[in-house]
Design brief:
With about 240 residues, the protein is of the alpha+beta class. It is about 45% helix and about 10% strand. It has helices spanning about 1-10, 20-35, 55-60, 75-90, 165-180, 185-200, 205-220, 225-235; strands spanning about 40-45, 75, 95-100, 105-110, 120-125. It has a three-stranded antiparallel beta sheet with strand order 3-4-5, covered by helices on one side. Strand 3 (about 95-100) and strand 4 form a beta hairpin. Helix 2 (about 20-35) runs antiparallel to helix 4 and helix 6 packs antiparallel against helix 7. The radius of gyration is 18 Å and the shape is globular.
Length: about 240
């Protein structure tokens, strides 16, 4: 995460003290968790629902036995983007809203207002629609300045008294422990493997084998990446699935 922050600062020519590292951690962590086929196991599909996350929270209420092989909720791009924006706002990071790069597509945008320098708009692609595997957080594929205003998402999609089922809450925390420290590249690779399992284009065993191949190819790579790939492979194997 720290290396990602340094790369982000360099890409936007920002001074380290111009934005809070904690804000960056929150927006990155929740992106990897809530994106389509991210490590909270949300899955994109056409739903024709309004651009809010209400239906996701309703689905989560019924998840008593989360599994690495199944999605925790199904949602369209605008719902995923609304969920992301809602959670970021509830985590006290401001200026995240929705952006329509096309009439039929929605992503989130984080509007960064550094203490010095111009405002920065960061595209947060909560799905890979219209994107390639190389397009990740802060992708330049969409120009967020095409939309005149990014309105901060302030809608309360769920009340403060809402409680996730305990097994699902524990699963989300475990997933953060397993994957949050991995690099952008590794998380993207795992996202595509996870999606393949959801779509049944990969069997769990095939996805596990592919993850182990990627782990071997890293050699003496970053400990966090090696651990994330190993954890994914273990989750896919019979006897280890939740």
């Amino acid at each position: 995460m720290r290396l990602g922050f340094q790369s982000f600062l360099a890409a936007h020519q920002l001074a380290p003290e111009s934005i809070r590292y904690s804000d960056y951690v929150i927006v990155r962590l929740l992106f990897e968790a809530t994106r389509d086929a991210g490590f909270w196991n949300l899955h994109w599909a056409i739903t024709d629902q309004p651009p809010n996350s209400d239906r996701i929270w309703q689905q989560w209420k019924n998840v008593e036995k989360p599994s690495a092989l199944k999605s925790t909720a199904t949602a369209e791009c605008d719902e995923l983007s609304a969920l992301y924006a809602f959670l970021v706002e509830r985590a006290a990071v401001k200026s995240v809203g929705l952006f329509w790069p096309a009439l039929n597509h929605t992503v989130a945008v984080w509007v960064v207002r550094p203490t010095t320098g111009p405002v920065v708009r960061v595209v947060v692609p909560t799905s890979q629609i219209f994107l390639d595997e190389t397009d990740r957080f802060d992708t330049k594929k969409f120009n967020p300045w095409r939309q005149k205003t990014i309105y901060e998402y302030t809608r309360r999609d769920v009340s403060d008294t809402y409680e996730l089922p305990k097994p699902l809450f524990n699963y989300f925390v475990q997933q953060m422990d397993k994957y949050a420290g991995a690099s952008d590249v590794t998380l993207q690779e795992l996202r595509y493997l996870r999606e393949g399992v959801f779509l049944k284009s990969w069997t769990p065993e095939q996805a596990a084998g592919e993850a182990l191949k990627k782990r071997s190819a890293l050699g003496a790579g970053a400990v966090e990446d090696l651990a994330a790939l190993q954890n994914f492979a273990q989750d896919m194997r019979p006897g280890n699935r939740q």
